[in-house]
Specification:
By secondary structure, the chain is of the alpha/beta class. It has 17 helices and 15 strands. Bound molecules: pyridoxal-5'-phosphate.
Length: 468
């Protein structure tokens, strides 16, 4: 027998988000070995710049080979490390965080807590801020993993801030207030708002107005603001990206120590550097109490010293990092253009976006009815017949059926091209089927009305009805 927590459904393994991955694993696409297999478009991985990272490793063999200045540092890395992390790594990490934000803001390495990815950072932060039963407000649609990361082991609750397509899923004051009131009505104590900026799954950045709205809201309600900024390095187009930490430096907030201490960032190297397997993430907080508690908690998910050592070498090569950041953005931009124009050819529209590794696709016109059951039906058809694993909006708690997250940076150009061809063929076949149906229906309607006409004529004795 295992514990209730371990055996409950808190992981969300049976959500369509994770089920799609399972289906993919059963029949993965391979260009030569399995060309009819399923193409994985449900995984926000960035595989576009491995050539750059690999050539850096070739040119800089020391960090990966347990040496420094020609001498072995194996023992130093293999022995016990405390949970504060390697100083050279933290120094390099905060500089990299500044670079991603155009050097408009600096970060203090003492405020940084290292964790095994953003998954661990988010859970650790919620553990530090919320008691079981406390609520976090999250704008919808949101990253499906949050149900696991924020709630499962901490016992915290998520209350949705309902955003809608009518304004491009922007966060509004009424939606924030409604979510807050809903939480109170459910008897929950609201501990904070958590946003992703850039957004997963929307691929959009928060506007300055939205950040100001959020800061005003958390300030007046005396709660926390968590900004998950793990996609900060994926902003490939305007409008300009603003981190909440930059906005906090404005005159209005700069002396509000209380508020400054209630704003926290989550970051990781999983998305912009494409290194989710290295498990490198961090919490950045201006509150020393949170930093201290999170540092102790981080014992449960440390980054190995070997990984920190390797990445300290990489991140402190500022010239390379500068080049990497802009080249990564350039490649993401061209991928994004490729998918958006390919979908457009199939008559499919995407939410206008400027960041992320995915696009938020509007398939409402392909639903039989505007319901989540129809969304599931369409999703199954796309997974099993078209052989594309995409994520339905319902798995992201979207309030409107018919939206899907489609990833574009985890495959080769040719694979994306094939995926787009499959979608186009599917949409065309569906349209033909519908028009065939409607022609058949029209024929049926015509013979039905003839029949009705005859019936009514028969019933009228020798009276001839008026022609219509
Ligand atoms: C918004 C967001 N936060 C956190 C994570 C988890 O990232 P990591 O691989 O660093 O744990 C993801 C992964 O997709 C994400 O999209």
């Amino acid at each position: 027998m295992v514990s209730q927590l371990a055996s409950n459904n808190g992981h969300g393994q049976d959500s369509s988000y994770f089920l799609g991955w399972e289906e993919y694993d059963k029949n993965p696409f391979h260009e030569s070995d399995n060309p009819n297999g399923m193409i994985q478009m449900g995984l926000a991985e960035n595989q576009l710049c491995f050539d750059l990272l690999e050539s850096w490793l070739t040119n800089n063999p020391e960090p990966a080979s347990f040496t420094r200045d020609g001498k072995s540092n194996f023992k130093h890395l293999a022995l016990f490390q405390d949970y504060h992390g390697l100083p050279e790594f933290k120094n390099a990490f905060v500089k990299y965080m500044s670079m991603l934000r155009g050097d408009n803001v600096t970060f203090d390495p003492d405020n940084l807590v290292l964790t095994a990815g953003a998954t661990s950072a988010n859970e650790t932060l919620i553990f530090c801020l919320a008691d079981p039963g406390d609520a976090l407000l999250l704008p919808t649609p949101y990253y499906p993993g949050f149900d696991r990361d924020l709630k499962w082991r901490t016992g915290a609750e998520i209350v949705p801030i309902q955003c809608s397509s009518s304004n491009g899923f922007k966060i509004t004051k009424p939606a924030l207030e409604e979510a807050y009131d809903n939480a109170i009505r459910q008897g929950l104590k609201v501990k904070g708002v958590l946003v992703t900026n850039p957004s997963n799954p929307l691929g959009t950045t928060l506007s300055k107005d939205e950040i100001t709205l959020l800061l005003n809201f958390v300030s007046s309600n005396n709660i926390h603001l968590i900004s998950d900024e793990i996609y900060a390095g994926t902003v490939f187009n305007g409008p300009d990206y603003t981190s909440v930490m930059e906005t906090l430096m404005e005159k209005k907030w700069a002396n509000d120590k209380d508020l400054i201490q209630r704003v926290h960032i989550v970051t990781s190297l999983s998305k912009d550097l494409g290194l989710p397997g290295f498990r490198v993430g961090a919490i950045y907080s201006n509150d020393p109490v949170v930093v201290s508690a999170a540092t102790k908690m981080s014992s449960f998910g440390l980054i190995s010293a070997q990984t920190q050592h390797l990445l300290a070498g990489l991140l402190s090569d500022l010239k390379f990092m500068d080049y990497y950041i802009s080249e990564n953005q350039r490649r993401l931009n061209s991928r994004h253009q490729m998918i958006v124009s390919g979908l457009k050819k199939a008559g499919i529209r995407c939410l206008e976006s400027n960041s992320g590794l995915f696009t938020w696709v509007d398939l409402r016109h392909l639903l039989k009815s505007q319901t989540f059951d129809s969304e599931m039906e369409l999703w199954k058809e796309i997974v099993y017949s078209v052989k594309l694993n995409i994520s339905p909006g319902s798995s992201c708690h979207c309030s409107e059926p018919g939206w899907f997250r489609v990833c574009f940076a985890n495959m080769a150009d040719d694979t994306l091209e094939l995926a787009l061809q499959r979608i186009e063929a599917y949409v065309e076949a569906k349209a033909n089927k519908n028009s065939h149906h409607s022609k058949r229906n029209a024929r049926r309607m015509r013979s039905l009305s003839k029949w009705v006409f005859r019936l009514s004529f028969d019933g009228m004795g020798d009276k001839v009805p008026e022609e219509r």
